[in-house]
Every structure is written in structure tokens, then in C-alpha cells.
């Protein structure tokens, strides 16, 4: 259910010409934040769906600590987002598609399960993996076709 909400966020990004990545943060079975990728629109490095959702959740709970939350995101978090997840103390991350080029919660490495950090997070990958992956595949195929024209 929550991954489908993250996918709806990703579709909002796609409508803006953004890479379709969406995220939601859940606290006690309630969505407290949702966001989508805005890097091209804002032209800022940190405009990833996860980081925007974390900021919104911080505001919602009134704390930088998101200790009882779960982050759902359509694509495996990159190193920057994994670092923010650690810093926010999010205990659980659920993602859709694996990212072979930048995934840092299981694919290239797992920053969220490194005992050298003072916080770790449980990770569940591959939730609605095919559907999340198709969002990205379709987006990049369409982009390549437009460039050819």
C-alpha cells in the first residue's frame, strides 16, 4: 500500500520531466510526509525524493529524529540519501527497484548496516520492484526517443 503511494509520488515527478522517484514516510501507520524528485526543477543536488520527504517529516514531528518511522521509496537510496536516513535515525527503509549505479543500501554497499556507524536501519528491497523499475525504464526510453527526434 505505502509503496503504491510512493509510486504515485514518482508519477508526479515524471509529469514535471523529473526522474520518477517518489518517497513516503510513515509513522504509526499514518503517512506523515511524501515527496518526489525535484533535482531538475530546483537545480539543487539535495532535491532527491527521500531528502525532501525527510525534511517534511522533521517538520511534521518537530524533531530531526524520525526514530519510529519507515521510509518507502521507489528506488534504492544513493549514498547521500542513505547518509540522511542514518542521520535522521530512521529505523526501517523499504525500497522498490535496485539501483546498480548508485544504490547504497544493498547493491554497491549497505551504508545502513555498517556497524561502524552509531545507527543502523533494517532494509527491505525489491517491493513492487518490477513496477517501480518500469517507471524508470519507461521514463528513460521516452527521454532517449525524444532526443533522437
UniProtKB/TrEMBL annotation:
Catalysis performed (reactions): adenosine(34) in tRNA + H2O + H(+) = inosine(34) in tRNA + NH4(+)
Cofactor, free-text remark: Binds 1 zinc ion per subunit.
CDD domains with a match to the protein in the record: nucleoside_deaminase (cd01285)
Residues reported to bind Zn(2+): 48, 78, 81
The protein's required cofactors: Zn(2+)
Superkingdom of origin organism: Bacteria
Domain CMP/dCMP-type deaminase residue range list: 1-106
Molecular function (Gene Ontology), one example: tRNA-specific adenosine-34 deaminase activity
Binding partners and assembly: Homodimer.
Protein name per the record: tRNA-specific adenosine deaminase
Organism in which the protein naturally occurs: Aquibacillus albus
Amino acid at each position: 500500500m505505502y509503496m503504491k503511494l510512493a509510486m504515485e509520488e514518482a508519477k508526479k515527478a515524471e509529469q514535471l520531466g523529473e526522474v520518477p522517484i517518489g518517497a513516503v514516510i510513515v509513522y504509526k501507520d499514518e503517512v506523515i510526509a511524501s515527496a518526489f524528485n525535484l533535482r531538475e526543477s530546483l537545480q539543487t543536488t539535495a532535491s532527491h525524493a527521500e531528502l525532501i520527504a525527510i525534511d517534511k517529516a522533521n517538520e511534521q514531528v518537530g524533531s530531526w529524529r524520525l526514530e519510529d518511522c519507515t521510509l518507502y521509496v521507489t528506488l534504492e537510496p544513493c549514498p547521500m540519501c542513505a547518509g540522511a536516513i542514518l542521520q535522521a535515525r530512521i529505523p526501517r527503509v523499504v525500497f522498490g527497484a535496485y539501483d546498480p549505479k548508485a544504490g547504497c543500501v544493498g547493491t554497491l554497499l549497505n551504508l545502513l548496516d555498517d556497524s561502524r556507524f552509531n545507527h543502523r536501519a533494517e532494509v527491505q528491497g525489491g517491493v513492487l520492484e518490477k513496477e517501480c523499475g518500469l517507471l524508470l525504464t519507461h521514463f528513460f526510453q521516452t527521454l532517449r526517443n525524444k532526443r533522437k527526434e
